[in-house]
Structures are given as structure tokens and as C-alpha cells.
Design brief:
Helix content: 40-55%
Radius of gyration: 22 Å
Number of strands: 7
Structural class: mainly alpha
Bound molecules: adenosine monophosphate, tryptophan
Mean pLDDT: 94
Largest sheet: 3 strands, parallel
Strand content: 5-15%
Number of helices: 13
Length: 345
């Protein structure tokens, strides 16, 4: 059998998404959304609020509706332009679920058993985890490959899921002897890749941390940002002159990293400027930078959240455009698998 070339493989298509499962925070902004906005210059971009992924663990229905709008508002306020890029929520485009089922039949149990995120999330209660949580990575592969996306910006923690996406694409192409899917490239940026909790420099800033003081939410007022940075955990030493001096000082490392990410400077450059300064003074500078940078974003989020109809309209338009891109790919997939009859006997 000859390997039939795919009908069309886009060259520069980005896909990414985040779960609407709680507060969007500074880590999401610096580690994800800001990069998504920047990628719009060079790529055709599709950004998704992955509500079907969110329900792999229990979500209160009314909260889910609000959080989905809030996630979309956070993308837009961070610079994702819904006219230039496609912005929608996953459940509105049925192709994701359909392709995820087909990928459930391509991926092997052994592959999914190796996924560390499932092990972390399910913990000791594996038997009580939803089946959805187990096959979560197959749905993620479907999100990306429904659009034949070529590049996927994610944080370090998603690398393993993208390797699985590559394995699924490869196995599908091999099994059906047809180059239907591209082998995606992860885009993992270094700056802002790991923003840590303001209360504990060894833990990631996270929407699931019970302490609200541990994170700067994208819905926080300027006052609350000031308070949280003032109260952020530090140590009594002044800032060192170089990055090596931050070893063993996770809280200092984190605040210098946040300052650098917000001002687009390397940690070395920040320490050249502020080395020798005590935290009382450095925090004042950080407060000024953080409030100046984040106020337009939090302001825009608040404006958008005041008008849910506008967000819903943006998501509907996005879903329509996404579905139009997915349709021919799904036709090709159904035909390839033999779910519709174009094969000749
Ligand atoms: P999540 O909030 O886990 O759904 O992640 C959404 C996106 O934000 C992913 O691309 C994550 O890698 C990124 N992200 C989440 N938390 C952080 C953090 N503390 N630092 C940097 N990036 C993060
Ligand atoms: N699993 C990703 C996270 O938790 C979210 C996600 C779902 C995603 N589908 C995706 C990211 C497709 C990139 C591409 O961050």
C-alpha cells in the first residue's frame, strides 16, 4: 500500500487551551496567555476554553458557566484578539468529542498508565477517579489534531501530554497508512514558565491553592495586588548581585522572576539593577510595576465580565469558525477509518 499524503497540512497553526476550573492568575498570564497573544504575530492561532476537560473533576454547573466566560475574558484582556484568532469553548465544537473517541481506540492503556498528571490528580483514590480524567490526554490530542495544529504553547507540566499527542498522530498515520495528522511541536517558553506561590516559593502558583493570598488573580483590584505583594513571603537578606545568589532562596527567586517577567528583563539584569536592595524597598518597586502592568488587564476583564452577552457572542462566533475548520478534517478522518464509505472494494 502506498502512503497517501494528507489533503492539507497547515504550516503555522497554533492551538492551546486552559481549563475554566477556577481563578485565572498571574501564573496563567505570564506562563500562558501573554505568550498566546504574542504568537498571533507569526501564527494562525486557535485558543480554546477547555470546558470538557474541566468536568473530568466535579464542577458546579453555575460556576462552570461563569468560569468559562471568565477564562475567555482573561484571554482577551491578555491580548488575544478574537477577530484575528479563533476563541471558543471546546464543548461547542462536537468534533473534539468525536475525535477523542477515535483516539481512545488508537491510544494504548500502557501509554495512558504512564501519564504523571493522572497519577498526581487521582492520587491514592485511583479507583474513584472519573474515566474522563484517565482519558483526558486523548481529548487533548483531539483538541489539537482536529485542526491539524502544528505548534502548541504550553507549560512544562504539559510536555508529556504533547508527547502522547505525537504518539497518537504517528500511530494513526501508520495504522491507516496515510499522513493525516502532523507531528506537533511544543512551544515552551522559559520566562514566566513557573511562577510560584507568594506564600511558599516551593509550590506553583495555582488556582486550586486554598489560600487566596498565594496568588494574584486576574480579577484582583489594585489594592489587593498591593496587599498580596506586601505580605508575600521573603527572607531577611538583601537581594544578591547575581542569579547564583538566589540558590536556596525560593521566595526571593520567585519575586525576582516575576519582576523580570513583568518588565521583560532577564533575572541577571534585574539583579544588576537591584542587587543589594532589601525586600522592603524591592517590594515597593515590584508593586508599582505589577499594578501598572496588571491594571489595564484586570480593568478589561471587569468590563468584559459586566457584559456576558458580548463574551457569549464572541464564543459563538469562534465556535462557528472553529467548526468550519474542523469539518473537512473530520470528513478525512471518518473516510480514513472507514466510518463513511469512500473506500473502493
Ligand atoms: P492551568 O491553570 O493548570 O489550567 O494551566 C493553564 C495554562 O497556564 C497552562 O499553559 C499552564 O502551563 C500555565 N500555568 C498554570 N500555572 C502556572 C504557573 N504557576 N506558572 C506558569 N504557568 C502556569
Ligand atoms: N491540559 C491543558 C492544561 O491543563 C489544557 C489543554 C487542554 C490544552 N487541551 C489542550 C493545552 C490542547 C494545549 C493544547 O493546561
Amino acid at each position: 500500500m502506498t502512503n497517501i499524503k494528507s489533503r492539507s497540512l497547515p504550516k503555522n497553526r497554533v492551538f492551546s487551551g486552559a481549563q475554566p476550573s477556577g481563578n485565572m492568575h498571574l501564573g496563567n498570564y505570564l506562563g500562558a496567555f501573554r505568550n498566546w497573544a504574542r504568537l498571533q504575530q507569526d501564527f494562525e492561532c486557535i485558543y480554546c476554553v477547555v470546558d470538557l476537560h474541566a468536568i473530568t473533576v466535579w464542577q458546579d454547573p453555575a460556576d462552570l458557566v461563569r468560569q468559562t466566560r471568565e477564562a475567555a475574558a482573561a484571554y482577551i484582556a491578555s491580548g488575544v484578539d478574537p477577530k484575528r484568532s479563533i476563541l471558543f469553548n471546546q464543548s461547542r465544537v462536537a468534533a473534539h468529542s468525536e475525535l477523542a473517541w477515535i483516539f481512545n481506540c488508537v491510544a494504548r492503556m500502557g501509554w495512558l498508565n504512564r501519564m504523571t498528571q493522572f497519577k498526581d490528580k487521582a492520587g491514592k483514590h485511583r479507583e474513584r477517579a472519573s474515566v474522563g480524567l484517565y482519558v483526558y490526554p486523548d481529548l487533548m490530542a483531539a483538541d489539537i489534531l482536529t485542526y491539524k495544529a502544528t505548534h502548541v504553547p504550553v507549560g512544562e507540566d504539559q510536555k508529556q501530554h504533547l508527547e502522547l499527542t505525537r504518539d497518537i498522530a504517528q500511530k494513526f498515520n501508520n495504522d491507516y497508512d496515510r499522513e493525516v495528522f502532523p507531528i506537533v511541536e511544543p512551544l515552551i517558553s522559559k520566562e514566566g514558565a513557573r511562577i510560584m506561590s507568594l506564600r511558599d516559593g516551593s509550590k506553583k502558583m495555582s488556582k486550586s491553592d486554598p489560600s487566596d493570598a498565594s496568588r494574584i488573580n486576574l480579577t484582583d483590584t489594585a489594592d489587593s495586588i498591593v496587599q498580596k505583594i506586601r505580605k508575600a513571603k521573603t527572607d531577611p537578606e538583601p537581594l544578591p548581585e547575581d542569579v547564583a545568589g538566589l540558590d536556596g532562596r525560593p521566595e526571593a527567586h520567585n519575586l525576582v522572576g516575576i519582576y523580570g517577567a513583568l518588565t521583560d528583563k532577564s533575572m541577571e539584569a534585574v539583579l544588576k539593577e537591584h542587587g543589594g536592595t532589601g525586600f522592603a524597598e524591592f517590594k515597593k518597586t515590584l508593586v508599582d510595576v505589577a499594578v501598572a502592568h496588571l491594571s489595564p488587564i484586570t480593568g478589561e476583564m471587569a468590563r468584559l465580565m459586566d457584559d456576558p452577552a458580548e463574551i457569549d457572542q464572541i464564543l459563538s462566533d469562534g465556535a462557528e469558525r472553529a467548526a468550519a475548520l474542523a469539518a473537512p478534517v473530520m470528513e478525512e478522518v471518518r473516510e480514513t477509518v472507514g466510518l463513511i464509505g469512500r473506500h473502493t472494494y
